[in-house]
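Entry 14: structure prediction run for AEC family transporter. Input pasted below.
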Amino acid sequence: MHTILVIVAPIFALILVGFICRKGNKLGEKAAAEINKMVVWLCLPALLFKVTATATWSEIWQPGFIVAFGGGAVAMFIVTLAWRLYRGHGLVAASIDGLSAGYANTGYIGIPLCLLLFGQPGLQPALISSLIVVCLVFALSLMLIEIGLQQERRIGRAMLLVSKALAKNPLVIAPLGGAVWAMSGLGLAEPVMHFLDMLALATTPCALISLGAFLAEKRPETTAGPWPLVGLKLIGQPALTWVLAFKVFSLPAMWAASAVLLAALPTGTGPFMLAEYYGREAGLISRTILWSTVVSLASLTGLLYLLGYAG
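Run finished. Output tokens:
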């Protein structure tokens, strides 16, 4: 547990900083929303552009790993989406909840964990999983949210409105722009890389401080508890990924173990950012992130022992 605690402890510290600053009125009542806007419009797009613009095809083309990890993430998203829709929730809320069950914190926890366990080769599965989470699961949620926001009854007109909304969304434009830039083969100049790095490095701390400030606000209690989403994220996703990685595709040891461990990571801040960005009630999402992170201290430690990496 010490290994996991060393990596996860700064997450709690940043959430606590945001919580204390808001409670002490050092951050105003709109701080969570305003900091989150900065993340959505500046920091996260810079990170997405940089990751996709600098990735090479040889690095990311690992079909067995992609299906094993991506299949687990998308399956949890779809299961949660269907469950929430069946329970009478709207498409927007159901999509954000689905994202909470399938959005692993691959960036802040996954990358250092894989580097610690597997050395430099562990960076490759961590990078691929980050691309899957952001460019597949996150993008799927964004698309469904935009569809849910449209009230048009004519399908053609509604799809046109959705396309326009997505075309204006920085979280869609940035990775697509990065992919196009990567295909051009031009590379990124050093000053541009420094600029993107400075913004990208602010993504996680700002998102976590925003989350802490949000948790400090007094809000009406929601009837839905976070535990079903926490269970799907920490048990359902790694269990399905385990079957795909070890049984279906028989991946090499490092790739199979990293797929399962990355799938078992707690929920990242992406769903909270979307809930705040679209003005939705984010109480359930914030508690899901918080409790999945807390419980993952034990669940990830157990997985390390099970996979034989505890030593």
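Notes: The two ends are 11 Å apart (CA to CA). Will compare against the previous run tomorrow.
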